[in-house]
Structures are given as structure tokens and as C-alpha cells.
Amino acid sequence: MNGTYSNFSTYSNVSDPYNSTNSRTIQMYSQIFFMIVHQSIIMTVSLLGNLFLLFVIFRGNRVMKRRVSPVQLLILHTCVADLLFVFLSLGTEILTLMAFPYYPGSNFTCKFMRYAQMFPMYASPFLLVAISADRYQAICRPLAHFRSSRYRRPNWMAAIAWGLALLLSAPQFFVWEKKNGKYGRCSTVYGANRNIIKNVYVIMFNTLAWLLPSIFAAFFYCNNAEFRFCDQNFEILDCVCKAVRLSSNKSVRAIDSQKKNGKLSTEATENYIEELRKKSKGFRQQMSEFDRKRVQTVRLTITIVACNFFLWMPFCIINVIQALWPDVLNPTFINNVSVLGNLNSCLNPWIYILFNRSHVKKALCQSRGTSEPTTKRSLILPQPPTITTTITTVPKATATITIAIIDPTSSTKKCTSGPTQPIAPPSDKLQR
Question: In this entry, which stretches build a coiled coil (predicted)?
């Protein structure tokens, strides 16, 4: 690939295909035809998939009367990056291959086209890192997540990803150039130290566009990772399961501390009240739904990141090998492997659709006139029981302590009575 996006760079050193041998020319044009066909297929599938994803998100949210969630917002940014890859990277490359061996545009058009081809290739992995960071913040640091704005942080992360993609694509203006006038080619120029600069640029691209984003995404997801069972589902990330439970318990304790006005002084009573609340049916249902949605969202983004890593891995490794040892690999093998990297833009929308089948059904099956209003299930933690302590004083300096526990999820009251025991008579100060 010459260190940049160009599936055709394998034949860039051929001065004129018409002066080459017949076998070489036939092989060259057969490979060009193969690349045009497979890129056209990928372009069509990716375009349809991403447009369908846009329809599912907006139509589904409209049917369920919901706003776009922060995760959906970042998924939409990724969808836009895939669409840009379809038009700017695959589309322009198909046109270039069809015009081979000459490039019909000007020198500036050559530079700008290569810049536009590189831009979505940086933007897509950077946006995946933004999704990973957002999920890490929401699950492993929930208090900081709720203190910040719901949409400000995802928008800032997406803006940083797009900005870095624009910046890191700039070297394309310096390494591409149209040579030999009107009937020249759009090819790479690396200056006097061609091999050194080329190798550095290739390694830099593969590191920044593939390796580092994968490492950052793995860090956000796999901190203290263990293979374990969580809620009867085999989960890769122990951090997610732990964080969901810990954040829920912290939220419950925070509510307890606000509701208790110092009336309960014994630790045994506090533990007893919390156990009653945790055993309530409404509490368990809401916590189970909350944890399920969190883990499902994380599994979705993990799958997208993993597909991005494994689909681009063969291409990036071969790209480095081709730069360091140009004659080691067969051109046909290189072009066949490049197909895997292009498949990434096709899979992203279908992965989201696979993990959100109920959302897809609502978007497809419910029309505006027949759909019933869907109420969004609240994920707010249930209110703790109301605790009422009544002290009844009797003439013989004894008292009965009655604690009434009112469960919000139940229509009945549970009362516990402590044993009757002598207590000290109230002081004069208390009586006054």
C-alpha cells in the first residue's frame, strides 16, 4: 500500500504496462479488475448497511419516544466515518483504478484525493477509542459520569477524534504527487532518503491508525480483566461486572445516608434495613434491567473494537512487510488480504443491528399511526423504605420500640417490635 491507502500501489513501479510482457500485463489487469469488483461490492454493502443503521436509530427512537443516547451518538459518528470511507476511500480508488495507468486530475487533485482517502481511515479507529472511553467513564467511574453533561462529553470525544484524523492525514499532501505532466500518475515521493522516510511513514500510519487505538480500547475495557461468569452470561470483562455492582451499591448507600436523619444509631439496624430493601422484588428487577443494559452496551462496543482489530491486523502487518521487504510477498496475496480491512466498514452497522434486534423490530414493525406509546422504563434506583421509630413510654419506666418499614414496592407494612426493657426516665432537659 505504499504506506497509505492505495490498493493499487503494488504496480506503481511499472513505467508503462503496454511495454511490459504480455503475462505481466494480463496479471496486472486481472488484479485491477478483481479489486474494482470487490471494492464495488463492499462499497454497496457498506452503504446499504450504514444507511439502514441510521434509519434504525432515528426511527426506533422516534417510535419509543426516546432521545439519542450517548452511545448511539458515538455510533452515529462511527457510521458517518464508514460512509466517508465508502465514498472518499473506496469510491475514489475505484475511479483511479479505472483510469489506470494514467491519472486524469491535476497535482493538487492527486494530493487532496489521497488526503481524503486517509481521513476516514484515521477517524474510524479514533471514534472507537472514544466509545471505549465513554463506556469506561460511565461504568467504572459512575459518579464522575453523572456529574458531567450527558451529551457534552461524547461530543467532545468525537470532536477530538475528528480533529486528530484531520491532523494526522496531512502528511498525504507531502508524500503524493502527480508526475510526468498531463499523462502522469498519482504516486508517492519520499525525497532523497526514500527508503528510510517510506518505512517511517508506513510504521507511523499502522501504529497510529491501528495499533495504538487497539491498545487504548483494550486498556479501557480490560483493566483487571478476568474470565468469569456474570449474571449467567460468559463475560470477558470482570471490570464491567464489578463496576456495575459496585456503582449500584454506592448509589444505594448514598441514598441511605440522605434519608437517615440520624435516627438509627446502631449498625445492626442499618444492615437489617438494607437487606430488606435488597430482597424486595422491585429493587431486584430494576437492578437486573440496569445491569443487563450496561453489559449489553459494553459487549456491543467490545465486539466492534475486536472486529476492527482483527480485520485490519493482516493488512497492517503485510503493509509493514511490504515496505521493509518489497519483494517478499506476492502481489496477488497482498491484494487478497486487503479485502479484510475493507470489510470492517461493512460489519460495524450489522454488529449494532445484531445486538439491538428489539430496537430494529420496533423501527420496522411499528408505524406512526398504529404504534402504542412506549413508556421508557425508569432506571432510577427505588426509594429506600420509610423508617418510623415510635417510643411509647409506660409508667414503670419501660418502653416498646416499634420500627415500621414501608417498602415502596409493596402495599403492606412490615413492623418489628423490640423486647420490652427498662429504660432510664427522660431528663428534665428532654421534657422541656
Answer: none
Buried b (16+ CB within 10 A) or exposed e, 290-315: bbeebbebbbbbbbbbbbbbebbbeb
Q: Given this model, what pLDDT does residue 415 score?
A: 45
Residues in the chain: 432
In this model, does residue 419 exceed pLDDT 70? no
Strands (E), 226-313: 228-230, 233-235
- 31-66 tens-digit pLDDT: 888 889 989 999 999 999 999 999 999 998 888 888
Contact 245, 162 (CB under 8 A): no
Burial class (CB in 10 A: 0-12, 13-18, 19+), 121: buried
CA 321 → CA 268, 314, 331, 347, 398, distances in Å? 67, 11, 12, 26, 88
Sign of CA dihedral 197, 200, 204, 205: positive
Interhelix angle 331-355/70-84, nearest 10 degrees: 150
Share of the chain above pLDDT 90, in %: 29
Phi/psi of residue 243, each to 5°? -65, -35
Mean pLDDT of all residues belonging to the chain: 73
Per residue in 371-382, pLDDT tens? 444 444 433 444
- The secondary structure of residue 215, as a DSSP letter, is H
Instruction: Please calculate the CA angle 380-372-409 and round it to the nearest 5 degrees.
Output: 30
What does DSSP say about strands 398-406 and 228-230: parallel, antiparallel, or unpaired?
unpaired
All domains of the chain, ordered by start, with CATH?
Answer: 9-227+293-365 (1.20.1070.10)
For cell 467504572, name the residue.
140
The string of DSSP letters for 161-174 reads: HHHHHHHHTTTHHH
- For residues 216 and 204, what is the distance between their CA atoms, to the nearest angstrom? 16
- Bridge-partner residues for 235, per DSSP? 228
Give 303's contacts (C-beta < 8 A, 6+ positions apart): 351, 355
Is the confidence at residue 254, as pLDDT, over 80? no
Higher pLDDT: 21 or 121? It is 121
